[in-house]
Design the sequence.
């Protein structure tokens, strides 16, 4: 921002700048990817996947049933005991490098498909989701032939067949987070993408086939919660990795109780973004916006609670409101869009319900002037001030573009409030004082802490939560542990 | 918590070393010889004791011929104090041949909840202590155990099925060595389990292991003092606080170990010891919303599925899960599996710039 720029004329507006959807070809129907090929589901069931920005159907995808889960697990087992299990680490590495490279080559295609199916702005799918997914495969590729040096003892062994159930907020990225370390460690996989966002996982299946991985090494089963349940409960699965809500995570932990299956859970969060009075406030405001409005707030580690020091609360709130007035909500494929569509009707209903509860419980609701498109699922950026710790919007994960603002006076109070949820996934600290950053970072009970930044991700950086935000880590050397008998 | 606990916990650290240690004679050898005889309940033995006991009641090594031995009351260890069970109940602990050894406190569900409260209260201090300090405290435990090795040898020998006293002595020696092994870990574990992460951007990124919180430990009932050391030391070495449930033949050694902990600079509440029926206490701790992790080592494989289901209520970390868990060889090299089991990885990012 140049200080001398002239004032913006009041009628100035962005011209539409849509990314072309021609780059993707979406089939009218998709089968299940089992044993290296797309096959129809055993009972022929299917469901539509919608573009949440238009509510139009993009494609019909298969609903995998128990028989399909059986087939996929059997295919994964055969590959584990066959070609993939026999492949040396050096070859597994090369396969994963191939996948990373093809994702880079077809990045625009993946990005557009992701924005169509998920509703997220193309700016984010293009600049965050897809590059990070490729980076994840590239990172773990290098581990495949170095496992004995990873600090898990001599000759660490893979677990076998991994069942992986992923969410709809970062569909391809979550698939990469799950598949890359599992394959690097020598496991085979059955991946269940989210019901509302199956398309990039299916395109990834095609890429994996083209990369020449032995059939059955990766299997993709589309379906709803019942498919996920069948996969979790399947006796042929040795490892379950799940990313999603804490509620479902607990059900999964119960379902695998007593089976000896190894489990990794990446669950919900209610991240506190703590702003001290000495923070660079304009930067902090950017961090607050990125923390809660990135990906429409559909982020488990979102900074959904702003804890701002009382002396600067008014100033921060004013700046925040001014900044939110500049956010552009609309067509996810438009390169200037900041806020895309809410992923599903169901999620929109949940956000609407919790926001109503915020008002009923006495918090003050504010949104910038913002017109919502006539069709599709949309929710304006929303800020609640005057929130108390007991309010539902301060305790429950909303998973939408809704920020709850609380205040504090002392660092001790900030820590106590930040830690006052059953979660423990993420937190932010904004201050210019280095010693205070470390003091806070030691006391915040959260798995990822961003100081003077927020929502940064990297394949080399372990990610995961304390307490009811789950257990196990994804990313980095730590991410291998969940897929090795270590 | 009501008055009872408040009173118990007030001067925490110092009370740990001073409260309720009625009889812990420094000289140890042989005084458990009296354990062969059945005894009445450990309720107040006021006055001069029982006048007409036979010679077995006389502690031969405890002060010359004719001196009547002072017996020990085996109590719980909660928040640095040694209370009886709030339920007022006790149960007989017997040797394998059926000889009555003692009446141990039968911990109740309320005792278990009290122990969790004490462990939670101790967590900020213990997890916030320097790693060097925690290492020294663990080493101090080994020092104290070494001085009482004879007592422990007698205690585990009569309680468990050792072939001979030498076998028991080896178990005790190995247990002491295990505390020494873990005493070296607190200031090293962050370097094997954490480190800098080379992220693709202008950020300093560091991962550090942090303690999970309050850990419930179902101790192996038949593994003697070595089993207790092997499950407890790794939990507290990394800064967790523990609620340890001892059952079976391990109970007497567990209570004596608690007495050692109370005199080893371990702050009150860092380790809490419950004696009684693991089968009754395990579900309470597995379901407890303020317990962060549970070690099921001492439970029966058939019980584990239910306990794991209860543990899911607050997404507890479960160690030794599943029926396929292979019982450990306690005498073998411990490795770092237990040490790393009750840690959370915290990753901190900060921009790099001028």
Sequence:
């Amino acid at each position: 921002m140049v200080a001398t720029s002239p004032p913006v004329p009041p009628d100035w507006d962005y011209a539409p700048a849509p990314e072309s959807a021609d780059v993707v070809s979406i089939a009218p129907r998709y089968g299940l990817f089992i044993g290296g090929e797309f096959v129809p589901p055993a009972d022929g069931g299917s469901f539509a996947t919608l573009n949440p920005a238009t509510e139009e159907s993009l494609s019909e995808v298969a609903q995998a049933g128990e028989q399909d889960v059986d087939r996929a697990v059997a295919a994964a087992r055969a590959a584990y005991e066959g070609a993939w299990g026999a492949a040396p680490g050096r070859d597994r590495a090369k396969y994963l490098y191939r996948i990373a490279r093809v994702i880079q080559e077809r990045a625009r295609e993946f990005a557009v498909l992701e924005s169509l199916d998920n509703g997220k702005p193309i700016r984010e799918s293009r600049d965050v989701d897809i590059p990070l997914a490729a980076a994840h495969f590239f990172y773990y590729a290098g581990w495949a032939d170095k496992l004995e040096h990873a600090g898990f003892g001599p000759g660490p062994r893979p677990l076998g067949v991994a069942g992986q159930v992923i969410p709809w907020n970062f569909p391809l990225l979550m698939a990469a987070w799950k598949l890359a370390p599992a394959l690097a460690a020598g496991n085979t996989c059955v991946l269940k993408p989210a019901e509302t966002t199956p398309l990039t996982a299916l395109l990834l299946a095609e890429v994996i086939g083209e990369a020449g991985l032995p059939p059955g090494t990766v299997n993709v089963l589309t379906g709803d919660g019942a498919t996920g349940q069948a996969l979790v409960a399947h006796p042929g699965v040795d490892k379950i990795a799940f990313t999603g809500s804490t509620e479902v995570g607990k059900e999964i932990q119960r379902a695998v109780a007593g089976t000896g299956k190894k489990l990794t859970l990446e669950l919900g969060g209610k991240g506190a973004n703590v702003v001290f009075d000495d923070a660079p406030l304009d930067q902090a405001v950017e961090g607050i916006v990125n923390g809660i409005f990135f990906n429409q707030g559909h982020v488990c580690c979102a900074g959904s609670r702003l804890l701002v020091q009382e002396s600067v609360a008014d100033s921060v709130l004013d700046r925040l409101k001014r900044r939110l007035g500049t956010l552009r909500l609309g067509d996810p494929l438009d390169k200037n869009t900041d806020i895309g569509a809410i992923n599903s009707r169901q999620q929109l209903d949940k956000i609407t319900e919790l926001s109503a509860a915020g008002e009923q419980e006495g918090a003050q609701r504010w949104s910038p002037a913002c017109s919502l498109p006539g069709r599709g699922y949309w929710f304006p950026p929303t800020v609640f001030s005057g929130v108390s710790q007991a309010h539902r919007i301060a305790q429950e994960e909303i998973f939408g573009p809704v920020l709850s603002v609380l205040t504090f006076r002392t660092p001790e109070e900030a820590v106590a409030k930040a830690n006052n949820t059953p979660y423990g996934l993420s937190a932010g600290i904004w201050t210019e004082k280095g010693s205070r950053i470390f003091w806070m970072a030691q006391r915040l009970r959260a798995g990822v802490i961003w100081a003077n930044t927020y929502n940064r991700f990297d394949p080399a950086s372990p990610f995961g939560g304390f307490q009811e935000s789950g257990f196990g880590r994804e990313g980095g050397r730590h991410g291998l542990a969940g897929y090795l008998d270590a | 918590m009501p008055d009872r606990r408040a009173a118990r916990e007030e001067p925490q650290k110092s009370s740990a070393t001073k409260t309720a240690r009625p009889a812990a004679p420094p000289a140890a050898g042989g005084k458990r010889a009296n354990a062969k005889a059945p005894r009445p309940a450990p309720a107040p033995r006021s006055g001069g004791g029982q006048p007409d006991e036979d010679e077995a009641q006389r502690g031969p090594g405890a002060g010359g011929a004719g001196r009547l031995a002072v017996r020990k009351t085996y109590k719980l260890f909660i928040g640095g104090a040694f209370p009886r069970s709030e339920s007022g109940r006790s149960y007989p602990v017997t040797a394998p041949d059926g000889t009555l050894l003692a009446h141990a406190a039968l911990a109740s569900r309320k005792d278990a909840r009290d122990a969790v409260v004490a462990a939670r209260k101790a967590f900020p201090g213990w997890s916030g202590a320097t790693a060097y300090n925690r290492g020294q405290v663990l080493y101090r435990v080994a020092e104290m155990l070494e001085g009482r090795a004879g007592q422990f040898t007698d205690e585990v020998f009569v309680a468990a099925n050792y072939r001979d006293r030498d076998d028991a002595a080896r178990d005790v020696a190995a247990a002491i060595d295990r505390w020494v092994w873990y005493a070296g870990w607190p200031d090293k574990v962050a370097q094997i389990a954490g480190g800098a992460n080379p992220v693709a951007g202008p950020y300093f990124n560091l991962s550090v292991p942090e303690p999970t919180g309050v850990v419930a430990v179902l101790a192996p009932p038949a593994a003697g003092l070595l089993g207790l050391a092997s499950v407890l030391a790794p939990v507290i070495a990394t800064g967790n606080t523990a609620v340890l449930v001892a059952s079976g033949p391990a109970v007497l050694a567990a209570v004596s170990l608690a007495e050692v902990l109370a005199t080893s600079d371990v702050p009150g509440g860092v380790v809490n010891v419950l004696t009684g029926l693991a089968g009754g206490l395990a579900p309470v701790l597995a379901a407890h919303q303020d317990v962060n992790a549970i070690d099921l080592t001492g439970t029966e494989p058939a019980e584990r599925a239910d306990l794991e289901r209860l543990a899911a209520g607050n997404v507890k970390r479960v160690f030794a899960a599943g029926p396929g868990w292979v019982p450990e060889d306690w005498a073998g090299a411990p490795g770092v599996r237990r040490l790393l089991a009750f840690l959370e990885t915290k990753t901190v990012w900060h921009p790099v710039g001028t």
In short: The longest helix of chain A spans residues 122-141. The CA atoms of residues 23 and 109 of chain A lie 6 Å apart. The two ends of chain A are 51 Å apart (CA to CA). Chain A touches chain B through 46 residues (CB under 8 Å).
